[in-house]
Specification:
Elements lengths: L13 H15 L3 E2 L2 H6 L14 E4 L3 H14 L3 E4 L16 E4 L6 E5 L4 E4 L5 H8 L4 E2 L10 H6 L7 H4 L2 H4 E7 L5 E3 L13 H5 L8 E8 L1 E2 L3 E9 L2 H13 L4 E7 L1 H11 L8 E8 L1 H16 L3 E7 L2 H12 L1 H6 L7 E9 L5 H15 L5 E4 L4 E9 L3 H20 L18 H5 L1 H14 L15
Parallel strand pairs: 2-4, 3-4
Antiparallel strand pairs: 1-2, 5-6, 6-10, 7-11, 8-9, 8-10, 12-14, 12-15, 13-14, 13-17, 16-18, 17-18
Helix pairs in contact: 1-3, 9-14, 14-15
Length: about 475
């Protein structure tokens, strides 16, 4: 599979690296860790990209720690890789040039909550589950849910989205302002708590999705929402994947305000049934969630049921019971583990990848992808945040089987080419990291890549911030 490593990285000279580590040890004491086990944990990747550990890990506790790490590393020309919870999927936390991993998990304070303005200020290590626990008593929640209990700093850096994005948007729409430590250790403030602004360049959204390559986020101001009066989860089975996709397209085009709409193809339903002890019909399935008043939720459910019936939808059920909703969505969030359980073994790998297409091309893209999997005789259940035209394939391969690996490589490449040919993107939410650099030129053109390189040089002239990610080598 995709195991090539970007060549636009250079390891620091041994003496420079030693000087940086000695200075960090003097500053941080036992919060600097150099043991191999800890370093490898901070480069763990769920792709087949090889793990590339940093030379040291620093546990940051406050903004001044980030500033000092950056200043020391800049002085010695040593890379700095920010680390949240390590849930990124395309090698974003690898250290191809070595250097220092800056672990931000201890920066996990909710600094301010402005309930009347529906926003809050947090440190980057706050996770989405911890934030929502903190907010629950105030009747508020943060809606972006990528499945994993990721840190908000990491979610911002990868421009995460997830199951609620069809109604609430992605991190791009929910970050108001950032404080970012730049290459000299000073802090940039990118915006305010105002819901809109025309003041200068939109620096906030320059750093959203930058994967830590332009600076390190030390503080975030994000939007909040009120917890809906009524939340209903629904499940609807379909005769075909195309029918499920068509129902999704019609729901979006006719304006049914679904909060979540997730596709599971028949293979994924079988995997979820086995792993999560469910009894869902093993045909293509849509999982939905509706938010609003009791009357609104009932109306939304009825409208979707009627629409789904026109597209071959059969068994339709919905519930407002929290325990039933939790069970259903937990099964969806456990999709990766359910796929892994289909083919156990130490040398069996599962690679989660994603593409995103305009909603009108969703049915074509998913059905052609299923046809490709049959032709190549590969196992890869499909799930998707299909209200956005975004879906994921969890490809299962024996990494010691060269033929199977070659077919997997072919499938992954064809999947991206198919999405791009339909006016879509090589990644809707996983990000570029190392794994998808090779697709950016075809998607955006060489001029866009030149502009990205110019930004990188301007904001990080020493190339110390997460080098070897996003922008491919010239």
């Amino acid at each position: 599979m995709a195991t090539t490593i970007s060549s636009n990285v250079t390891r620091p000279e041994p003496q420079a690296l030693k000087g940086a580590i000695d200075a960090l040890a003097a500053r941080f004491g036992n919060r600097l860790v150099t043991s191999l086990a800890v370093r490898e944990q901070h480069a763990h990747t769920t792709t087949w990209l090889p793990t590339q550990p940093p030379d040291a890990v620093v546990m940051a506790q406050e903004t001044a720690d980030i500033q000092d790490v950056v200043r020391i590393c800049a002085k010695h020309g040593v890379p700095v890789i920010a680390f949240g919870t390590g849930t990124s999927l395309e090698g974003q936390v690898n250290a191809p040039a070595g250097g220092v991993c800056l672990d931000l998990r201890d920066m996990n304070k909710v600094l301010e909550v402005h309930a009347e303005d529906l926003d809050c200020v947090i440190q980057p290590g706050v996770t989405r589950k911890a934030l929502n626990e903190h907010l629950r008593d105030q009747g508020l929640f943060f809606p972006i849910d990528p499945g994993a209990d990721a840190s908000l700093g990491g979610m911002t850096s990868t421009r995460a989205s997830g199951t609620n994005a069809v109604r609430y948007g992605t991190m791009r729409e929910n970050v108001l302002a950032l404080k970012v430590v730049r290459g000299d250790g000073e802090i940039i403030t990118t915006g305010t708590r105002a819901k809109k602004s025309s003041a200068g360049y939109d620096l906030t959204h320059l750093f959203v999705g930058a994967e830590g390559t332009l600076g390190i986020i030390s503080e975030l101001t994000i939007k909040l929402r009120g917890i809906p009066d009524t939340i209903a989860a629904a499940a609807c089975s379909f005769e075909t994947v195309r029918g499920a996709c068509q129902a999704t397209i019609l729901a979006i085009q006719t304006g049914i305000p679904v909060a979540r709409i997730e596709l599971l193809n028949a293979e994924q339903v079988r995997a979820c049934n086995a792993y999560s002890k469910l009894t869902l019909p093993e045909t293509p399935l849509l999982l939905l969630e509706f938010h609003g008043s009791e009357v609104e939720v009932a109306e939304q459910s009825k409208n979707f049921r009627d629409l789904a019936a026109e597209c071959g939808g059969g068994d339709f059920s919905w519930t407002t019971k929290p325990e039933d909703r939790t069970k259903l969505w937990q099964a969806r969030h456990d999709a990766y583990w359910s796929v892994k359980a289909l083919r156990p073994g130490d040398r069996i790998g599962v690679v989660a990848t994603d593409v995103c297409v305009p909603i009108s091309r969703l049915a074509d893209c998913v059905t052609e992808t299923e046809d490709d999997l049959k032709r190549l005789n590969l196992l890869s259940p499909i799930v998707g945040h299909v209200g956005d035209g975004n879906f994921h394939c969890s490809l299962v391969c024996d990494i010691d089987n060269k033929d199977e690996m070659a077919r997997g490589e072919e499938f992954m490449h064809r999947l991206v080419e198919r999405a791009q040919a339909m006016g879509g993107t090589c990644t809707g939410e996983h990000g570029v990291g190392q794994g998808k650099q090779k697709y950016l030129k075809a998607e955006l053109g060489p001029e866009a890549l030149d502009a990205m390189r110019a930004l990188k040089r301007a904001l990080d002239p020493q190339n110390i911030f997460n080098p070897g990610k996003i922008v491919p080598a010239v």
